[in-house]
Design a protein that fits this description.
- The protein is 30% helix and 33% strand.
- It has two domains: 4-100, Gcn5-related N-acetyltransferase (GNAT) (Aminopeptidase), CATH 3.40.630; 129-279, 3-Layer(aba) Sandwich (Aminopeptidase), CATH 3.40.630.30.
- The chain has helices spanning 14-24, 31-40, 84-97, 112-117, 149-160, 165-174, 213-227, 241-249, and strands spanning 4-8, 45-50, 53-63, 66-74, 102-107, 121-131, 142-143, 180-184, 187-197, 200-208, 231-237, 253-254, 259-265, 277-279.
- It contains eight helices and 14 strands.
- 45% of the residues are buried.
- The model has no long low-confidence stretch (mean pLDDT 94).
Length: 286
């Protein structure tokens, strides 16, 4: 008789999933995020059970030939039962079976050896930065409108490397006041999205044409003004030297013990590594 099983996530699992991320201190990964995963692709959302009780989660997000894995959690009291590897293997197999040639994830440092044993390799540190931003001398951005979403999603598809418009549109619908664009001569040269998590605002993704650090900085400052929050946070891949340099130039701090961006498959074709992208959206969505 088997005590362990893996099944598709259901709506009644959302509170369990959100409680798991809260227990890990992953403040960005709320019930809203799991609702978005289920709405996007319920077949890629997995729940592990042990002796009939929910024991863990893992989410597989696929965009054409790209894949992301996230929300890999096993309940603390069940971590000696050997549930993590089969749960992760199931989610990874889902992406591989659907033709993903590059699969990305952000690993906490202690989990890096496990992911290496699954064929992933470290690419760079995935920083989480935070702090307050001063208002710019003069605003250079304007609120994003529904009419901007088509052009913004087209730009993001080229920069990101695949189509994640479902999540960008959903983020705009949830927090339209935190979505901004910069334009010049009628052309969009930069955009940023945001989301509120309690008193904190997370910004990202953020894109600036031609990897223009000045444009990215003014977008961030404008977004902080719109957010009216005491603190902003965002995720930055350290391989983007301009983005990492911008963090220091703006006086933002880096949280200790950063995650590690790891990739399985063809790193050259992995989504989300463009130098035009100054801030990631989320670890699980890219």
């Amino acid at each position: 008789m088997s005590f362990f099983s893996i099944r598709a996530m259901r709506e009644e699992d959302l509170d369990f999933a959100a409680a798991g991320t809260a227990a890990e201190g992953w403040t960005t990964e709320t019930r809203q995020e799991f609702e978005a995963f289920l709405a996007y692709d319920p077949a890629g959302c997995f729940v592990a059970e042990w002796e009939g009780r929910r024991a863990g989660t893992c989410i597989a997000i696929r965009y054409g030939g790209q894949g992301f894995l996230g929300e890999m959690i096993v309940a603390r009291e069940l971590r000696t039962k050997g549930l993590g590897r089969p749960l992760f293997t199931r989610a990874m197999a889902y992406l591989l079976d659907h033709g993903c040639h590059a699969i990305s994830l952000d690993a906490v440092p202690r989990a890096v050896p496990f992911y290496e044993s699954m064929g992933f390799r470290a690419v760079c540190r995935s920083l989480r930065v935070y702090g307050a931003l001063a208002a710019p001398p003069s605003p250079s951005s304007r609120p994003m409108t529904a009419a901007d979403l088509g052009p913004v999603c087209a730009l993001d598809r080229r920069a990101f490397g695949d189509d994640r418009s479902f999540f960008l549109r959903r983020r705009f619908d949830e927090s339209p006041d935190l979505a901004l664009v910069q334009e010049r001569a009628g052309r969009i040269d930069g955009y940023v999205f945001g989301r509120r998590r309690g008193p904190v605002v997370w910004l990202g993704p953020l894109w600036a044409r031609e990897a223009d650090a000045g444009r990215a900085a003014s977008l961030l400052q404008d977004a902080a003004v719109h957010a009216r929050a005491p603190e902003i946070r965002m995720g930055v891949l350290e391989l983007n030297a301009r983005a990492a340099g911008l963090v220091g130039a703006l006086g933002l701090a880096v949280k200790p013990h950063p995650s590690v961006r790891m990739i399985h498959g063809d790193v050259r074709r992995a989504a989300g590594l463009s130098l035009d992208l100054y801030a990631i959206g989320t670890a699980a969505k890219g």
